[in-house]
C-alpha cells in the first residue's frame, strides 16, 4: 500500500512541475513571474527547466513502476539453460 501512495505523490509532483513550467512558458508576463523573476527571459528558462524536470520525474516513476512489476517474475531465467 505505501508504494501506491509514493507513486501517486511522485506522479502529482511530476504533473505539478510540468504544469508550472508550461504556464511560465505560455505566460511569461504574468503577475507571478513579474514578481519573482527579473525578465521574461528568466521565465522562459525556468519554465523550460521545470518542464524538463517534470518529464524526468514522470519517466522515473514509469521506470520504477515497471521495475516493481518485474520483481514478481523469476529473476534467474537466464541460468535455466546453463546446466
Oligomer: single chain
Number of helices: 3
Overall mean pLDDT stands at 85
Radius of gyration: 20 Å
What are the low-pLDDT stretches, counting only 5+ consecutive residues below 50?
none
Largest sheet: none
H/E series, N to C? Answer: HHH
Distance between the termini: 39 Å
Shape: elongated
What's the count of strands? 0
Helix content: over 70%
The number of domains = 1
DSSP strand content: under 5%
Structural class: mainly alpha
Protein name: C4-dicarboxylate ABC transporter
Keywords: Membrane, Transmembrane, Transmembrane helix
Please tell me about this protein's structure.
- Keywords: Membrane, Transmembrane, Transmembrane helix.
- The chain crosses the membrane at residues 7-27, 39-56.
- This is C4-dicarboxylate ABC transporter.
- This protein is an all-alpha fold.
- It has one domain (2-67).
- 75% of the residues lie in helices and 0% in strands.
- The protein has helices at residues 2-26, 31-36, 40-70.
- The chain is elongated, with a radius of gyration of 20 Å.
- 11% of the residues are buried.
Main attributes?
single chain, 83 residues, mainly alpha, 3 helices, 0% strand
Question: How are the secondary structure elements laid out?
Answer:
Layout: H1 2-26, H2 31-36, H3 40-70
Helix pairs in contact: 1-3
Quick gist of this model?
With 83 residues, this protein is mainly alpha-helical.
